[in-house]
Amino acid sequence: MDKRIWLLLLVMIPMVSAEQVLVVHLRYDDGFISVVDKTTTLGYYPDRLYQPDSGYRLEIVSVDDNNLYSFRFNLPVDVFYDAEVLGVLEGGIIRLNETDFSLIVPYFDDAKEINFYNERNYLVASANLVEDKLSPQTIFPTVSISIIILLALILLIISRRKIRLT
Amino acid sequence: MMKAQIIGTPFIYIMFTFVAIGVIVAGIIAVHNLENASRATQLANFQLSLQNKVKSISTSVNSVSQETFALPPGIESVCFIGDEDFVPYTNKKVTENKIIYADKNLFFEPVERFSPRAVSNIAVDQNPLCLKVIDGKLSIYLQGLGNETKIIPADNAKPAECVSVKYSTENAIDIVFLGYNYNTIPTFAGDVSRYVNDVFLATEPYNSSQEKFNFYRVDDFSLSCSIVPGFNYIDCDSYQTNLMAANCPHDYIVVLADRNQLNDVLNPVRSSQVGNTAKVNTADNKDVLIHEFGHQFGLADEYIVNYPGFDPDAYPNCGTSCKWNSITGQCYGTPNPNDNNGCSIDTAYRGTATSIMKELYIHEYGPINEDAIRQVLDAYG
Asked: Residue B2's pLDDT band (boundaries 50, 70, 90)?
């Protein structure tokens, strides 16, 4: 079969691999958390099949206020550092007062906001997700890809008609 | 000099020369055997990963997945042989080998260097289907057909960023390797293969639970890392690390920082672990990966760090009391003055005399740490 036709078919067949994910960049500063940035990309998020019994909690809420996704995590403020020097293992622990860290979560079309709760279940940070969906950076790639696929299909149909005529 | 000594001296030189040549030849043979063993392991990993992926995708009828697999160095192409309508290939050697190895359907070129293998339930349109391996990677599409999976060339597709090093099942623990300070993909690929096969999977409880792990790597060396002054440990930009790791399925991230031994002697750098990310100095003892993964799975250091505010009861391998009766019934640390210190702090107990969380030359976690790690592994498929 013509390779070009194969490629077109492959584009249309559902791809079972990476999906859209949201990478959230956070800052921890002496007990306070803030959302620095967020990026939507094609990729994978951790399964999180094993979670701590207690800790901070992330929650993604839908436009109709349903819980779409949540998980518990420990703040990554304890750094273990180790090295073997002259056959002896040495190192230590650093408890960071401030640090940047990131979390990868699934992307939902109908997500409204992402919330962060501390160990006492107090809301400590929140980020709006609705405005990102309407941003040019989100709409433009989707529309562009759709137009390209449509044009490719039209060209294919035209070329096959020309072959029949000849 | 006496006459006997004069006669004997050339004989000694000749003997020394033969011994030296023998040692050099033995060394070359040993290195060659090690390389062959490593290639065989990597090829076995490819076969297993491909078989597991074929099995997993076959049930999603008509769905297509692009996969990139790691292959050992030296393989130029991979040939898939379908069950039906085999046409003698233009490459005489593959066709001849198919006659000899009738039960195999996966051939590697050059055929004289790599033994053929078998993968079940695959289909190909062009039979045989031979695909080039580029930079030690094979990129293909897999299409589920219900009872089998079709292998489709991905010649015109951009190679996937994520390279599968060893794949078991969809619900396994996903570990992705990222590289820092590397110059070439083969060097990084070789290091990843060694850490996975010769270090991680050679250690219990991982060795007996190999089916609970998937390993991947991302061949992108643009990660930004630095050495934290004062503490001399490796730190990498978390946002960039996670963006890069997102290319692959991942529950844990390992950043391999390529450093040479001489540089590390002059300026030692410590490996580190925070959150779900370990950063490993490749110039350090390779078992430091096992130690850092102990931290990933919730274990504390068992050597003394005397960190203010450390809570030993928050860790399964340290405690203010002996809490391991059900596992070992033993306890080490204070107030027994004969034991070599406590557990992270000198006023805490630990459950075993030593382990890899205390000393790297102990190449095992011990029963208490293994028990704690198994509780994490049990959550996965």
From this structure: low
Residue A14 DSSP symbol = P
Selected residues 19-38 of chain A with any CB under 8 Å from a CB in chain B: 21, 23, 25, 36-37
- Chain A residues whose CB is inside 8 A of the B305 CB are 91-93
Nearest one of A36, A16, A18, A38 to A26, comparing CA atoms: A36
Question: Residues B326-340: pLDDT tens digits?
Answer: 777 777 766 555 555
**Min CA distance, A16 vs chain B (Å)?**
5
What phi, psi does A4 have (nearest 5°)?
A: -65, -40
Residue range A150-160, pLDDT digits in tens: 888 888 888 88
Residues above pLDDT 70, as percent of chain A: 80
> How many residues are recorded in chain A?
166
pLDDT tens, B57-66?
998 888 898 9
Note whether A103 contacts B: Cβ–Cβ < 8 A: yes
| Cβ neighbours of A99 in B, within 8 Å | 238
CA distance A57 to chain B (A): 15
Q: How far apart are CA B241 and CA B257, in angstroms?
A: 13
CA torsion angle B345 B351 B354 B356 (round to 10):
-80
Would you tell me which residues 105-164 of chain A have a C-beta closer than 8 angstroms to some C-beta of chain B?
Answer: none
Amino acid symbol at A54: S
* Maximal CA-CA distance, chain A: 81
Q: State the Cα–Cα distance between residues B38 and B44, nearest whole angstrom.
A: 10
Please give the pLDDT value at position A14. 42
Provide CB contacts within 8 A for B330, sequence distance 6+.
B322, B324, B351, B352
How many beta-carbon pairs under 8 angstroms link A with B? 152
